[in-house]
Amino acid sequence: xxxxxxxxxxxxxxxxxxxxxTEAIRASLKDVSPPVLADRSGATWxxxxxxxxLDYNFQRYRVTLPDMVxxxxxxxxxxxxxxxxxIATYLKHADGTRRSGKWLAFRDLxxxxxxxxxxxxxxxxxxxxxxxxxxxxxxASETLAEVRLPAYGDAxxxxxxxPRIYLxxxxxxxxxxxxxxxSILFDEAASHYMPIYGLALLxxxxxxxxIRKAKER
Length: 217
Description:
This protein is α+β, with helices and mostly antiparallel strands. It has 2 domains: 9-93, no CATH class; 103-215, no CATH class. 39% of the residues lie in helices and 21% in strands. It has 8 helices and 9 strands. The protein has helices spanning 9-20, 22-29, 34-41, 81-93, 116-122, 124-130, 134-142, 196-215, and strands at residues 44-46, 51-56, 59-64, 69-72, 103-104, 147-148, 155-162, 165-172, 181-187. The strands form 2 sheets. Strands 5-9-8-7-6 form a 5-stranded antiparallel β-sheet. Strands 1-2-3-4 form a 4-stranded antiparallel β-sheet, covered by helices on one side. Helix 1 packs across helix 8 (196-215) and helix 2 packs across helix 4. The longest helix has 20 residues, at 196-215. The radius of gyration is 17 Å and the shape is globular.
């Protein structure tokens, strides 16, 4: 499933920033041994093909070495430029930190407070505004989620977006007095794998995927 976005000027700036750095990141990774890259990132190294394999947004990719070009598994066509940028950035920042199990709001991530309002607007707020309702949120989430989180909201699920980046989507149904609300949180370890603007785009991407999945019914 390829990610689709509706960039605001801010998110477009972040997309451009990721893509602008791709070639420099690839160059910086050429001297890192594949086993080290795999260990830090949670990717799988295939020494026979000299490739890494990893998941991003519920799709499997292979990454050829040493050029660091990503391909959807089973395809000879390179992935879109934005996917190339996300995967390269992930491999660059990965430091091997394991999942903590502690969920953080975007504002509680390093450097997240300044952009929190913007992030909430194109992630949780859009999810609450565009989803038909709680049942649709549950149905869409169940097809992709790692596990349901019973302690949060009216319904919540965790998602493995990349090998060591986990997000949680939480939905409150609302009532006659309060409209529906939603929020997309991050496992505490996420900041060890992606800069803050990259994490913002991952949260936006998950909202978009869930909205599209709900509307497919």
